[in-house]
Design brief:
By secondary structure, this protein is α+β, with helices and mostly antiparallel strands. 32% of the residues lie in helices and 26% in strands. Strands 1, 2, 3, 4, 5, 6, 7, 8, 9, 10, 11, 12 and 13 form a 13-stranded mixed sheet that branches. Helix 5 crosses helix 10 and helix 6 packs across helix 7.
Length: 385
């Protein structure tokens, strides 16, 4: 007999965080997320999506009173889909189909009461940039903010009846791998143009780079598929938040007569430092973080965004930028590998860009969907044009 507890008090909140740590204690690739990063999703003061939705989280216990699963379930009116669709996330479960089915049934019934006709998961009660998707290939250390799970989770979802709505592809390459001849040729070509220059992002000039980033991003991506326009104040706020972990050698901008035309944004993979903190980030852990950051090499960087303004696309300016930045970071950093954050398989243009950067798919996640009307035909995410 399974019992369900809604997470409300401090002990239940602690158990919601501690259960996966126990579940994965013998998995050498598991990196415990920071507790504060998880808790922020469930704090109405910090998560703006509570203004347009509702979220609850639950613990599932066996007859002996031991936790065997957990989940968060939510509705958000901004999550517009073909049919009213809710979500579940932060799902963890023992390797038992009956237990998983009980949890999924509970999510389905909760969402039915909210008028939903489908559920997607595992996703989060927020944006797609963190804790989104189920790992289905590439069971290695996760990047910061990325979901990690046992391989059997895929069977738990698919045996219940979930279908893959879209795959999330992560692309990697070695910093020291041979760079495409196309890149070096384009670098040689554009280097001869005195109006073209490349420079790394600097912490002491964040206002300028926030302005330049916003301009490039909005021109390159705002009208591209599901892209959203950014405004400069929010970009600057984001940059200031990132300032402690900005590496001044790995994010690059290209200019034509001081007009920003391309950018390549990267940050260190924070999990290479956070994995020593066991999910905590109090005063002692912050001191430990600073010590680890100073004494341990971080050899992995994460590609956040890449953009070229329309008038400079298909002219090889990305080759100029990539080779300019690569030569520099090889000399001035310890990074040996870069991984691009996930790209949906519904986005062929962005996939093509990733492939043109001489990368290969090294990790896959998947966003699953379950239609409550089992007679309704299932459709995958439409391809972006």
């Amino acid at each position: 007999m399974m019992t369900v507890e809604e997470v409300q008090n401090e002990n239940q909140k602690k158990e919601f965080l501690e259960f996966p740590a126990r579940l994965y204690q013998h998995d050498i690739n598991y990196i415990r997320p920071l507790d504060k990063d998880i808790e922020e999703f469930f704090d109405p003061e910090k998560n703006k999506f509570f203004k347009t939705g509702e979220c609850k989280r639950f613990l599932f216990k066996n007859k002996e009173g031991r936790t065997v699963g957990k989940v968060a379930v939510f509705v958000n009116e901004l999550y517009t889909q073909k049919q009213p669709t809710g979500g579940f996330g932060f799902f963890d479960c023992i390797n038992d189909q009956e237990t998983a089915n009980f949890i999924f049934d509970y999510c389905k019934n909760w969402l039915l009461q909210k008028g939903m006709e489908a559920m997607d998961g595992p996703i989060n009660f927020g944006e797609r940039d963190k804790f989104w998707g189920l790992l289905i290939e590439g069971f290695v250390e996760p990047l910061y903010g990325m979901n990690y799970n046992f391989p059997y989770y895929k069977d738990l979802l698919e045996n219940y009846g979930f279908n893959i709505y879209f795959e999330q592809l992560c692309f990697s390459r070695s910093i020291y791998a041979e760079v495409s001849r196309v890149f070096t040729v384009m670098h040689a070509k554009h280097s001869k143009n005195p109006n073209i220059s490349a420079r790394p992002m600097k912490k002491n000039d964040l206002e300028k780079f926030a302005k330049d980033f916003t301009e490039i991003y909005n021109k390159a991506w705002a009208s591209h598929g599901e892209g959203k326009c950014l405004d400069e104040p929010k970009t600057l706020e984001m940059f200031k938040t990132m300032k402690p972990i900005i590496n001044e050698h790995i994010s690059w901008f290209v200019y034509e007569n001081e007009k920003p035309i391309a950018m390549w944004m990267n940050i260190p993979d924070l999990n290479q430092w956070f994995k020593y903190l066991n999910g905590k980030f109090g005063f002692i852990e912050k001191l430990k973080f600073l010590w680890v950051k100073k004494t341990r090499k971080n050899e992995k960087m994460v590609g956040l965004v890449f953009g070229v303004v329309p008038e400079w696309q298909r002219k090889g300016i990305e080759g100029y930028m990539i080779w300019e930045g690569t030569q520099h970071l090889r000399k001035h950093t310890d990074f040996t590998e870069t991984e691009l954050q996930w790209i949906g398989d519904f986005n062929p243009k962005m996939i093509k860009i990733a492939e043109n950067l001489d990368t290969e798919v090294t990790r896959k996640l998947a966003t699953y969907r379950y239609l409550f009307d089992r007679e309704k035909p299932f459709e995958r995410h439409p391809e972006l044009q």
